[in-house]
Amino acid sequence: CANLATVIFQKANAVLCPALATKITGFLFTQDPLFKLQLANLNAPLEAIAAKMAVKRCTDKMSLGNRLLILKILGKILVKFNL
């Protein structure tokens, strides 16, 4: 967990890394075509992109309220592991 927290937080002021925040919110709220373009920019293998999109299709079926709840819980987890 410490390694995850190091990646997520900027040590100087324990602010959520903007890139990670963008990825989390993008995964939960961005439309598939735009999200797929964002993944393509990472030069990830096609199999990895396909797997991520399969999971995203599942989360896209969740209600907006549930996705907002997931985002809130993830935020609390990130704060808990503050460096």
TrEMBL record:
Q: Which UniProt keywords apply?
A: Secreted, Signal
In terms of InterPro entries, this protein maps to:
Secretoglobin (IPR016126), Secretoglobin_sf (IPR035960)
Keyword GTP-binding belongs to the record: no
The name this protein goes by in its record = Uteroglobin
- Transcription regulation as a keyword? no
Family the UniProt entry places it in: Belongs to the secretoglobin family. Lipophilin subfamily.
Q: Which GO terms describe its cellular component?
A: extracellular space
PANTHER family, A to Z: SECRETOGLOBIN FAMILY 1D (PTHR11332), SECRETOGLOBIN FAMILY 1D MEMBER 4 (PTHR11332:SF6)
UniProt xrefs under CDD domains: Secretoglobin
Q: Where in the cell is it found?
A: Secreted
